[in-house]
Design a protein that fits this description.
Distance between the termini of chain A: 70 Å
Shape of chain B: extended
Shape of chain A: elongated
Largest sheet of chain B: 12 strands, mixed
Structural class of chain A: alpha/beta
Number of helices of chain B: 6
Radius of gyration of chain A: 26 Å
Number of strands of chain A: 6
Largest interface: A-B, 62 and 52 residues
Low-confidence stretches of chain B: 48-55
Helix content of chain B: 10-25%
Oligomer: heterodimer
Number of helices of chain A: 5
Mean pLDDT of chain B: 86
Number of strands of chain B: 15
Largest sheet of chain A: 6 strands, mixed
Mean pLDDT of chain A: 84
Order of helices and strands of chain B: HEHEEEEEHEEEEEEHEHEHE
Radius of gyration of chain B: 27 Å
Strand order of the largest sheet of chain A: 1-6-5-2-3-4
Amino acid sequence: MARKMRQYAKDVPFSLTSMMDMMTIILVFMIKNIDAEGQLVTQAENLVLPVSTSKIQPKEVSLTVIVDAGHVLVDNQKVITTEEVLASKDLCIPAVLSTLYERRKVEEEHALAAGLPADEAGQVVIQIDKNIPYDAMYKVMATCGFANVPNCDGSGTSLRQGYTNLSFAVMMKNGGEE
Amino acid sequence: MAKELKPPKDPDEPDLLPAMGLFTILIPMLLSMTAFQKLAIVEITLPERSMMNMTNDAPPEPDQQALNLSLAITSDYLVIGARGGFQPNVYFKEMWTFRCKSDSKLITYSPEEVKAAVDAGHGPKCQDGKEMDKEKYLYEIESIELWALEKTSEEDPGRVIWAVYSSQGENVPDSAFVDGNNSFIAMTGEGPGGLKAPAALKKPNPGTPLATLTPNSARKLKPEDAQRNIIYPLSAYDLIAKDLIAIHTQFIDLEDVDNIIVVANDDTQFDKIISLMDRAKSAGFAKVNLAKLGGG
């Protein structure tokens, strides 16, 4: 004898109400956390940024220098190991300087081509792991300032400005909540 | 003849499928725009030397009328200097609070304890008994705390000072309370090194007038807030912040009152620099310079 098929669809109507409740909660949560302006700085991998009470948001996209436990990266390109930076006796790091100089040169050329003032200070956002020693941070910062010349001894064609407009990327305390 | 009343019909359920379709589109879109961890920036003035020429020009004569405020951090203490003089050292004991991946709970160790565990071939232990990865435990540091110490002499190892803090939960301190005399509600700890909270230090009762270091924060303690307060080691950052606020208020007429130089050792972690910069900016020092201890 053939088994009688149960008619689930007829017996138990599919209710979307509970799903709607869940969706509404998710929607409200996401609207609360929405960042309509977008993030001009995104956190690099392999590092933990320090937490700060600062609420200042970057106003425009700028060059990013990353210092993590392993490497120093300029615009996501590995330039030198952090160990080598720490071992260096000089404040100026030649490998980082030459990369920054090339970037700064391109920025100045673009500014001139677009009819913008080319003598404004270069902007750079530095992302540093919270456990990195001050020595490495200080050398990278100083090198950014020297980036209007291609060589650490000051020789070579000098640009108008190096990267003297510096800022550190940090995590907002309590996720930016009051 | 009276009309027979019909039993009311069950109302039809609204058709939710179009709304579901809308939600299904909205949620991925919002998910892509949602920021769970918000990033900000801390603006900084370049180190002194990089602003100079690379030649060996003589530095300019210091202005005798200026405040010339500096805040130095070493491995043992914080100190504020101005006009060639220094305030008393604020000694501290460094502590690392980890958030373990295994149980998501917080646990605090001194760097020496962590080093001893790592040297013995282990990672620091979590509350559930599991060990952190001994190669990557540094990534699990949630906060680097500087517990203020009371010392009677240079040789004295010091005792931890405990204070009343507000807390958002998990026994994590938020803001230290000060009383009507602008003094921290604090006391030296008991036991070796003062590592045990003093029994005499009590949490303030509801209705007690209190304030934090934030301007205009004086208030009477609400019962629900009083419950959340905790007794926790006083942070050396808070002690320094209080002094910085007092200095900024006292010398408000000076031209360089908004300037401060944070001076640190080569091996000072970046986290400490940011914490000091935060305190300095909150106290009103908008222009923060950085320099190295011992020149450079």
